[in-house]
Amino acid sequence: MAVIARYRGEILDLAQRQTATDPTFRRLYNQGNLQFTYCLWGLMPGSLGDEESPFNECSHAYLAAAKALLTYMAMMPAAGREAKALISDIDAEMVRSGASWILCQYSGEAFSTGAVVEPRWRDIFFHLPSLAVILATVAALGAAAWSIFRSPAPRAGAA
């Protein structure tokens, strides 16, 4: 899925350029974007490469949606040629990098466009990279709130 992750931007760019869409196309596109948001926009460390990451399964879900969208676009008249060329590029890179669809524990799982795969929120406390990012974010937000809302010090001699 790391190869799909590198091509996700190109897949979405191709999808955004489509003017003639259908409900299946829109469902795949929206599911991938919704899933990406639930997965905190792919910003958590190790979310794709670390099988123990609480964000690993949801990362695979948004990438599976991108792959399904690309496969679907390959059958669309307006996008077919570009989608097939992109699939060919992805296949070639997968061969070069020795990647495989079945290396991950979640590759065999079916992802439904009717359900969102959430991160395993409770496991964040046991996954140090994820916990560090969450704590750093909370600390930064707390510091920002403190600096914005703190009372200004009274001036000496002010009337």
How many beta strands in the DSSP annotation?
A: 0
Radius of gyration: 21 Å
3D shape: elongated
Distance N terminus to C terminus? 66 Å
| Largest β sheet strand count, sense and barrel closure | none
Number of domains: 1
Beta-strand portion reads under 5%
**Could you list the spans in which at least 5 consecutive residues all have pLDDT below 50?**
none
Brief overview:
The protein has one domain (2-119). The chain is 56% helix and 0% strand. The protein has 5 helices and no strands.
Name some characteristics of this structure.
elongated, mainly alpha, 159 residues, 5 helices
What does this structure look like?
There is one protein chain. This protein has about 160 residues and is mostly helical. It has one domain. The protein is built from five helices and no strands. The mean pLDDT is about 85.
Question: What is the topological layout?
Answer:
Blueprint: H1 2-16, H2 23-38, H3 56-73, H4 80-97, H5 128-149
Helix pairs in contact: 1-3, 1-4, 2-3
